[in-house]
# Entry
Amino acid sequence: MKIYVNGSLVSEEDAVLPVSDHGLTVGDGLFETMKVVDGVAFAIGRHLARLGRTASGLGLSVPTHDELRDAIESTVAANGPEVGRVRITVTGGTGPAGTSRGKGPPTVLVQCGPATVWPSSANVVTVPWPRNERGVLAGLKTTSYADNVIAFSYAEARGGDEAMFANTQDNLCEGTGTNVFVVIDGRLVTPPLSAGCLAGVTRELLLEIEPAIEEDDVSMAAFANVEEAFLTSSTRDVQPIASIDGRALSRSGGALTAGAGEKFAALLARTLDP
# Structure
């Protein structure tokens, strides 16, 4: 496996970082993960645009989109036809053992791996810790992921495939690595970005190709009683929710879920950089 580290492709064994890298010491960094289809990172333009928004939110200087695209494409090509996903991570680079940043360049890593094989549907578990929709990291895809690790472990221990967060208003927010869509009174609804959720690339594309989707706040009480819902992410595409906190959904994989999945699959077949 070849890893891209600050301009060079090296073996996994030779991919090293300084112990003072700010991404390691304080989680000062960002990342994007893309599905790779036929050697091409899907929706790379949109992922790099979101990376730029996260970098701006963090106040972090990053290389140009052209440089980052070249890093991603060269790493995918170097790892051959079995690549199914690629992740780019950018950190604040080396810095002091504290919260202030150093003055050096950022660290850029690109890693490849096989495609993630997800189950045909997901059991989700709500967690007791809210997302702060007014927090400084709200809506940013950062490497500060400890809350997601804890939440996912909580869900997994209860038979879940994904954890679901409320926000401080007790409205539905998102999963640890997913956006969520629900059917309420025949309406297909997803939480607005003001709820604190990440602006997922798959979410963004679905909003463009399926005009029936509404952005609206969904109370956790309403979420607990829905009969049809699904998750989206860059590696899951559209994944039906089978159960919420152990309650099976009677319309899991129903018509609106299936329709969204079909439209997304059609988009994927038309273009790899929508």
